[in-house]
Amino acid sequence: MTFLRKHWFDIGLILAVITTITLRFSNIDYFGLQFLIWLNVISLFLHQFEEYRYPGYFPGMLNSVIFKSSQPDRYPLNTNSAFVINVFLGWTVYILAAILYDKFILLAFVTMLISFGNFIMHTFVMNIKAKTFYNPGQFTATFLFLPVSCMFFIYVFEYNVLSTLELIIGIGLGIVINSFGLFKLIDILKDENTDNIFETRQLFFSEKQQ
Fold first, then answer.
1. CA 134 → CA 13, 57, 62, 126, 181, distances in Å?
2. Whole-model pTM over 0.70
3. Residues 6+ away with beta carbon under 8 Å from 135
4. 140-158, pLDDT tens digit by residue?
């Protein structure tokens, strides 16, 4: 488990490459919803790599800037909770959305709202609070999550893929997950005495100077 906690985002990069190659040689419709949903999965892998590996200081920045933590290397987010949230929840939901897209398109709609929410979080919330122009995850959120989710929404609304009720449910779930879901899970899994701490390279630049 220690290896996975420290390298799940590296594995994600490998999965991004494998998924990209698989799509390239598949019969998927590059102008259809299925392709956009799988592209969202690839975007997630690359987004997490940017957050946790290169430049990789998102976890420390989240702890210090958003949660005002005095222990940004482990509290409230730690390597174990990051692994659980991003892999067991994130990977599972995004991949299921891609696999079940034709049977449960609402799930894909929710993942796109989560992706769009990541763009808002990284581009505006994090930068405003940290008084920065960039934070790890912003590049992929801007150039992958944003265009992919917008193209998906345009397709869904133009072709009436979802009913009015499904749209209401999906938007509601998206708002709840973006606003409370992530932070609630971090709170549940927090542990001030945990040994699952982030590496120095994963801390916010101002913390490294202390």
1. 21, 11, 13, 9, 24
2. yes
3. 58, 61, 122, 126, 127
4. 999 999 999 999 999 999 9
